[in-house]
Design a protein that fits this description.
193 residues, mainly alpha, Four Helix Bundle (Hemerythrin (Met), subunit A), two-stranded antiparallel ribbon, DinB family protein
Amino acid sequence: MNQQEFARRLKEQILQLQKEVENAFYFMEAEELNMKPSEKSWSILQCIEHLNLTNAYYVKAVNRAIAKNTYPDASTESYKMGTWGKFMTEAMRPKGGNIRWKMKTFQKLRPLNEVNPKARLVEHVVFEKFNEDMSALLAALEDAPKAPWKKVKIKTLLGGMLKLRLGDAIAFVIAHSQRHVEQAMKVKRAMHG
């Protein structure tokens, strides 16, 4: 598979995520969106807000990497995910509606109203930001295949100690989004029995 084909698959996954979020959550009441199944669980809105906090970093990093690209067009180069990128993406992606590995969230990526219980997440703002970031990734995927994904690296939120290839980083962001959309869907299913 070449980079252009891989990018096309990633775009399809993003469009599916946007559609899923819109169909599942846009018409829910604010009270339902903020309902937590337990004290230590996140609400639907908190799941999406966590994605916004995470995706904001990666959208900037991806766009910066694409803008810096000085290599010739590499869109027809073959592409296979790297070992770390594939491992991290598969670890994140839910399988059959199950989130396999529980992971601790960094403090800076926790929803504001979890860090500060007096804060309030504004529903339409949270969903608009989610859509904005997903649309920005779609736009980035128009130009991304031109950069040589094996050479262009993105620092993860784990810092400089772990970098992913450009294509792997975008796949990871999508898998992370799928994970937390599934988490939000579980909250909705629990609510509606």
